[in-house]
Write a structure and sequence with these properties.
Largest sheet: none
Strand content: under 5%
Structural class: mainly alpha
Distance between the termini: 62 Å
Radius of gyration: 21 Å
Length: about 110
């Protein structure tokens, strides 16, 4: 409920400083990459745990590796968007993308 109220408040708010900042190019780009960041953050975290670099029982290591995880997740999200999502969205935007190519006439 709180999240819905926050979204409603932001969406219905007049164009203030906060909404103008969100309309700038870099927050929009991060929004485009965010799904890839979401998908990749857990495998990155898991890899750091498996290599022994990150320990869940030692919070200091989490704070130390947090910038690394954010950088890796952002980079992976950008790569996913650039090479997977964007090409697929272009393909879906074309008309009749689901139809197979021309079929030879049958007698």
């Amino acid at each position: 409920i709180a999240c819905a109220l926050a979204v409603t408040g932001i969406a219905g708010a007049p164009a203030g400083a906060f909404t103008r900042q969100l309309a700038r190019p870099w927050p929009r780009r991060i929004g485009w990459w965010s799904y890839g960041m979401y998908l990749w953050h857990l495998p990155i975290q898991y890899a750091l745990v498996q290599t022994g670099l990150l320990h869940h029982d030692a919070p200091a290591t989490t704070w130390f590796w947090l910038p690394v995880m954010l950088t890796l997740a952002t980079t992976a999200g950008w790569l996913s968007y650039r090479f997977v999502e964007a090409p697929l969205m272009l393909r879906v935007d074309r008309r009749d993308w689901w139809r197979p190519g021309p079929r030879p006439a049958t007698a």
